[in-house]
Design a protein that fits this description.
This protein is of the alpha/beta class. It contains nine helices and 16 strands. The chain is elongated and about 70 Å long. The relative contact order is 0.11. It holds the Pfam family Formyl_trans_C.
């Protein structure tokens, strides 16, 4: 098949590489210009550089709504468009242009976690598995019929960085199997159960601000969901912002005012978290390592030399 690829960052780069390694012909790559957005500077492998290295024509677009792009697509007459991490809406005159439509690769188990940053949101919400879905694009975001899915489990100590590496490794087999099914006429498209759909927004720095009224279990997942190289979960101590790099749920039960720097436990410092006991017990967040604004990473037991005082959402 003749294939056009739409994509961006590492997800798009891995998808383009999978297409280049397949038996199909890539006739064009469309990608976004480089961005200064904090989340778009992470995993920023260049689709444009990879395409140019292999002699594939490249078009840079923020939005795919100009006559030049549509004219180029009509001229190339692709059999299929494959998209992964394309950040703006594709109009129907594009996604329905090829005979086989547009295959979108999305890093969640649709219909759950449509939209943006699905791995981060899934980890924050305590999901037990994450994965990748190949589906046919339609006019509603991430809502088209599913061709195939692959899942990986979420471990009790997994960070979002761990989940990124596991799911990005699924892209190549998912792309190869999907294109094989489509090219051979064996593709079976399964409508999504829209009653199970959920949609999540783009992440911003504000979403990493710690609210100490959250239960410790939720805050511990937030810390793992904001692991390096993502912007870490942060709080303020004596007016200075500090980032929580590593944390756990305390063994003991500790009550009081959320954010109170309470007691040393093992290799960490317990901070009171939450306002409602679960099963009659209120755990704290055991902070193990912090990072200061100058980039220094310090054991919490070294940073918090005395107990008392509070961690706050704002200075």
């Amino acid at each position: 098949m003749r294939v056009v690829m739409f994509g961006y960052q590492a997800w798009g780069h891995r998808t383009l590489q999978a297409l280049l390694d397949s038996d199909h012909e890539v006739v064009l790559a469309v990608t976004h210009p480089k961005s200064d957005h904090v989340y778009e500077k992470i995993w920023d492998d260049s689709v444009a550089d990879l395409a140019e290295k292999h002699g594939i024509p490249v078009l840079l677009r923020n939005r795919p709504d100009d006559p030049e792009l549509l004219g180029k697509l009509r001229e190339l007459a692709p059999d299929l468009i494959v998209a992964n991490n394309w950040r703006t809406v594709l109009p129907p005159e594009i996604f329905d242009l090829p005979a086989h439509g547009t295959l979108n690769i999305h890093d969640s188990l649709l219909p759950a976690y449509a939209g943006f940053s699905p791995l981060i949101w899934a980890l924050i919400n305590g999901e037990r598995e994450v994965g990748v879905t190949a589906h046919r694009m339609n006019a509603e975001l991430d809502a088209g019929d599913v061709l195939l899915q692959r899942a990986v489990p979420v471990g009790a100590r997994d960070t979002v960085t761990d989940l990124f590496h596991r799911t990005v490794d699924l892209i190549t087999p998912v792309v190869h199997e999907s294109l094989g099914l489509i090219a051979s006429g064996r593709a079976e498209w399964i409508p999504q159960d829209r009653s199970r759909a959920s949609f999540f927004h783009k992440r911003s720095l504000e979403d990493s601000r710690i609210d100490w009224t959250w239960p410790a279990e939720d805050l511990e997942r937030l810390v793992r969901a904001q692991s390096d190289p993502y912007p870490n979960a942060f709080t303020h101590h004596k007016g200075q912002r500090i980032r929580i790099v590593e944390a756990a749920v305390s063994e003991g039960c500790y009550g009081g005012t959320p954010g109170r720097i309470f007691i040393r436990e093992g290799d960490g410092i317990v901070v009171v978290a939450g306002t409602e006991a679960r099963n009659g017990r209120l755990r704290g967040l055991l902070v193990k390592r912090v990072r200061t604004e100058d980039g220094s990473e310090i054991a919490a037991t070294e940073y918090f030399r005395t107990m008392g005082g509070y961690l706050t959402a704002r200075p």
